[in-house]
TrEMBL record:
Listed PROSITE patterns: UPF0034
Function: Catalyzes the synthesis of 5,6-dihydrouridine (D), a modified base found in the D-loop of most tRNAs, via the reduction of the C5-C6 double bond in target uridines.
Annotated organism of origin: Acinetobacter vivianii
Protein name per UniProt: tRNA-dihydrouridine synthase B
Enzymatic reactions: a 5,6-dihydrouridine in tRNA + NAD(+) = a uridine in tRNA + NADH + H(+); a 5,6-dihydrouridine in tRNA + NADP(+) = a uridine in tRNA + NADPH + H(+)
Active-site residues, as the UniProt record annotates them: C100 (proton donor)
Binding site for FMN: P16, M17, A18, Q70, K139, H169, N200, G201, D202, G224, R225
Cofactor: FMN
Ranges of residues in domain DUS-like FMN-binding: 14-315
Family statement: Belongs to the dus family. Belongs to the Dus family. DusB subfamily.
Enzyme Commission numbers on file: 1.3.1.-
Keyword match Oxidoreductase: yes
Length: 341
């Protein structure tokens, strides 16, 4: 798959997630086989550009190409300026956010709230594409409200404006992350446009990845929440798409090594105070479903420094190894819980 002149190594893409897809996480997902990753959402408001959070989000040092920076806002000129700024900062692709459903974003008429005003959508697309000489992509949803899905018009207008690829989450803003992703409309969009289409929403297994690709005809898939705490999902999906066979789940020793490596990168990237606190959610995701994990997490949340945090993680995984815990046991338990529901 190509985005502009950039050929991706495969068609598996890491979805942009605020507070999650920082440089350490993007790098880790690419290591496990993701062909592309999009940065966290960065505001187009230049008065906030030099905030500590914005500087972290715009840090692409040493990242594997192509580097994609996502921008968010509602003013066409501000977004055009933000695009130029991110290109000067090292971005090789600029992604426009018209998909975020968060209240604090939509209240500023940004993210998926933009889908209420198709004229403004068109002005933003035209302004950003004209502002930079790199490919511009769009991440969006089916529409703002259920029953008022306007993605077919938005997608066609995006193609006409020069958008290089469209990533489409199969829900409306009203859905937030509830209900199930609707792939029928994604399929209709693929039949309508000629630019690459990336399907997003509820892709959480190799089988689901293949189904979505086959059903929608999408050129690629984008994975978000399913990669939290299991970045190796890209390795598993890539293997399944190529061979039709499943890879064995990572063993506890590998999970331990991956998590400790991830923590080290977070500590180096964010520093002592923020690194320790940002790492907590990642540790919780990695340990979900493991033996006595709830008790472990409650104790882990109380740790206030990186050295002790590393020690409690090492100790917990060493106990699991001594007890013979396997990741396949965790997956079986999760399947059983789904059956019960």
């Amino acid at each position: 798959m190509y985005i502009g002149s950039y050929q991706l190594s495969n068609n598996l893409i890491v979805a942009p997630m605020a507070g999650v897809t920082d440089r350490p996480f993007r790098t880790l997902c690419k290591y496990f086989g993701a062909g592309h990753a999009v940065s966290e959402m960065m505001t187009a408001d230049k008065t906030l550009r030099m905030s500590k959070k914005s500087l972290y989000r715009a840090n692409f040092d040493g990242e594997l190409a192509p580097i994609s920076a996502q921008i968010a806002g509602s003013d066409p000129e501000q977004l055009a300026e933000a695009a130029r700024y991110q290109v000067a900062n090292g971005a090789q692709i600029v992604d426009i956010n018209m998909g975020c459903p968060a209240k604090k974003v939509c209240n500023k008429l940004a993210g998926s709230a933009l889908l209420q005003d198709e004229n403004l959508v068109a002005r933003i697309l035209d302004a950003v594409v004209a502002a930079v000489d790199v490919p511009v992509t769009l991440k969006t949803r089916l529409g703002f409200l259920n029953g008022h899905e306007n993605i077919l018009r938005v997608a066609k207008r995006a193609e006409e404006s020069g958008i290089a690829a469209l990533a489409l989450h199969g829900r409306t803003r009203e859905d937030m992350y509830l209900n199930t992703a609707r792939y029928e409309l994604i399929k209709q969009v693929k039949e309508l446009i000629d630019i690459p289409l990336i399907a997003n929403g509820d892709i959480d297994s190799p089988e689901k990845a293949k189904y979505v690709l086959d059903y929608t005809g999408a050129d690629a898939i984008m994975i978000g929440r399913a990669a939290q705490g299991q970045p190796w999902i890209f390795r598993e999906i890539a293997h399944y798409l190529k061979t039709g066979e499943h890879l064995a789940a990572p063993d506890i020793a590998e999970v331990k090594a991956v998590l400790l490596g991830h923590l080290a990168e977070l500590y180096e990237f964010y520093g002592e105070y923020s690194g320790c606190r940002i790492a907590r959610k990642h540790i919780a995701w990695y340990t979900k479903g493991l033996r006595s994990s709830n008790e472990f997490r409650q104790n882990m949340y109380k740790v206030e420094n990186t050295a002790d945090q590393t020690k409690v993680v090492e100790s917990y995984f060493d106990q699991l190894l001594d007890q013979g815990q396997r990741m396949s046991d965790v997956q079986a338990e999760q399947v059983n819980l789904l059956d019960i529901k």
